[in-house]
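tool=predict chain=A
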Amino acid sequence: MRYPVLAGMLLCLYLGGSAVATTLTELEHRVTQGDNSVMSEIDTLLREDTHNYPLQFLKARLLQQQGKTDAAASLYQQLIKQHPTQPEPYNNLASILAKKGDLAGAQKLLEQAMKTNSSYAAVYENLSNLYVEQARDAYGKALRLDQGKKNLALTEVSKLPGNSVTELAVNKTNTTTNKSTPVTTASNAQPAAIQPIVAVTTPTVT
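tool=predict ok
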């Protein structure tokens, strides 16, 4: 179980002090507001701490926001190698692949993210929606109605630790309900509309 107060304390230690944590919050707000000029400030901080996970993650988010998806994907891959127990890089890299139509690659990454934190709500929802899209695609092919693969839009993680918005863990009762949902058969199934995958917005601090 993660407690907000403890997470905030760990974040300050992780960033090297409360002053840096405050700076990170300000930088994150500017990124959220679409201020692309913040990149130079992020790079300056990263030169002092090249392996700082929250700052690296924020840079990847900014690159993705600027449409530099190849550079963002490369940084997410680097974060996965450096911080394999953090689910957010897997999730956001999956969102990039899904937008390119690589649902199999996105599925693999989301399943890896689930292994790092099986109760992370956004990853759980993303994977569920991806399964629905894959089922819809298979149904269309089976009826020879496939009109070309549609790219699945995924929502990326956009916020860092220390914010008022936190990810909620999936309620176990919801999980039980999902497992008991009747399976749709070929005789009564209908093509499902594409559901946008909701991405994680806050990196966890372990």
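DSSP finds nine helices and no strands in the chain. Residues 23 and 45 are 10 Å apart (CA to CA).
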